[in-house]
Design a protein that fits this description.
Elements: E1 4-6, E2 15-20, E3 26-31, E4 35-41, E5 47-54, E6 60-65, E7 73-78, E8 83-89, E9 102-109, E10 116-121, E11 129-134, E12 138-143, E13 154-160, E14 165-170, E15 181-186, E16 197-203, E17 208-214, E18 224-227, E19 236-241, E20 245-252, E21 265-273, E22 280-285, E23 291-296, E24 300-306, E25 312-319, E26 324-325, H1 344-348, E27 370-372
Antiparallel strand pairs: 1-27, 2-3, 3-4, 4-5, 6-7, 7-8, 8-9, 10-11, 11-12, 12-13, 14-15, 15-16, 16-17, 18-19, 19-20, 20-21, 22-23, 23-24, 24-25, 25-26
Length: about 375
């Protein structure tokens, strides 16, 4: 049973992102009201706002948590062309802030000349590293050489992706068989400009990240992208939010023992769903990569799960108002690529329904703090 609970967020404008910490007991939200709020889950299961502060001079697009191994650390990015790193300080509150978390800004990253559209911490086995992507088509990777001093960050890599970037995701695999890898999505609306998802991999010889794959079948604007947690698989699974939900399998092809070049992948689309009948804005995996959640402009969170034959289907729907909805109650049939149920609409990526908002980074109403519990 999937339960939705509504929270009075008290943001003064659109909420663009909701991010949970590693343990799922803390949550951060950001908004066009230029603020970030931090929420803590009480023993009774209620979400309580424990901190709220103005972070940027423009809309805040994304907020993300570092691994708790590095402390209570947040990063945010904004239309104001900057990303910022925040750290929670315990035991330094004054009378005005007593009882509330005390967050202070450790650094502002100002390298981008345009809106910074996404920010992500790298997997913890790589150390404390932070990645940003911008509308100018550049991915920047920063490193904190001293994890005890978060005011010092060095720019390690600057990668030009040629297309405006909208989202980024690290491959969380810590296997030595898999070099460090990330995927970046573009919200470029020009279909003729080619594939909107690019895969980059670290090369030990050049000590740089190079592009190893472009998903040429994804030609519509990409709003979110997420690698599934890798629990010993030899291949990678990537979810993409565009005008529909797509799940790709990337299987590394066997290299010659003497080969030092970039990896080659056998790319296969394993599922494609247009059930949202609208733009899809977020995709998110559970920690075991057995369940994928997506949210769209239809005002619903939809949950997807694969059976033992690796056929994906919708297992639950949560409406924006918090009421549950049967996966089969008047909804379009879930379609799995390769099955006889695949519709032409899914193949063509056709999406009917409401016109898409022209707000530059609008998220669906169900992203306005509708808690979905896996």
């Amino acid at each position: 049973m999937f339960v939705a609970r509504s929270i009075a967020a008290d943001h003064k404008d659109l909420i663009h992102d909701v991010s949970y910490d590693f343990h799922g007991r803390r949550m951060a939200t950001c908004s066009s009201d230029q603020s970030v709020k931090v929420w803590d889950k009480s023993e009774s299961g209620e979400w309580l706002c424990t901190a709220s502060w103005k972070t940027h001079s423009g809309s805040v697009w994304r907020v993300t948590w570092a691994h708790p191994e590095f402390g209570q650390v947040l990063a945010s990015c904004s239309f104001d062309r900057t990303a910022a790193v925040w750290e929670e300080i315990v035991g330094e509150s004054n009378d005005k802030q007593r009882g509330l978390s005390h967050w202070i800004k450790r650094t502002t990253l100002v390298d981008s000349r345009t809106s910074v559209t996404d920010v992500k911490f790298a997997p913890k086995h790589m150390g404390l590293m932070l990645t940003t992507c911008s509308a100018d088509g550049v991915v920047r990777i920063y490193e904190a050489p001293d994890v005890m001093n978060l005011s010092q960050w060095s720019l390690q890599h600057e990668i030009s992706c040629k297309l405006s970037c909208s989202c980024i995701s690290w491959n969380p695999s810590s296997s030595r068989a898999h070099p460090s890898m990330f995927a970046v999505g573009s919200d470029d609306s020009n279909v003729a400009s080619g594939g909107k998802v690019q895969i980059y991999e670290y090369n030990e010889n050049t000590r740089k990240y190079g592009k190893v794959e472009t998903l040429m079948t994804v030609t519509d604007a990409v709003h979110d992208i997420a690698f599934a947690p890798n629990l010993g698989r030899s291949f990678h699974v990537l979810a993409i939010a565009t005008k529909d939900v797509r799940i790709f399998k990337l299987a590394p092809m066997r290299k010659e023992s003497s080969s030092t070049g970039p990896s080659k992948f056998e790319v296969q689309i394993v599922a494609q769903f247009d059930n949202h009948n609208s733009q899809v804005w977020r995709v998110s995996w559970n920690i075991t990569s057995t369940l994928l959640a997506s949210s769209g402009d239809d005002g619903c969170v939809r949950l997807w799960k694969a059976n033992y034959m690796d056929n994906w289907k919708c297992t639950g729907i949560l409406r924006g108002d918090g009421s549950p909805l049967s996966a089969s109650s008047g909804q379009p049939i879930s379609t799995t690529v390769g099955s006889s149920l695949l519709s032409q609409n899914a193949l063509n990526g056709i999406s009917a329904g409401r016109p898409v908002s022209r707000h530059p980074r609008r998220t669906s109403m169900n992203n306005k703090l509708k808690k979905h519990e896996f």
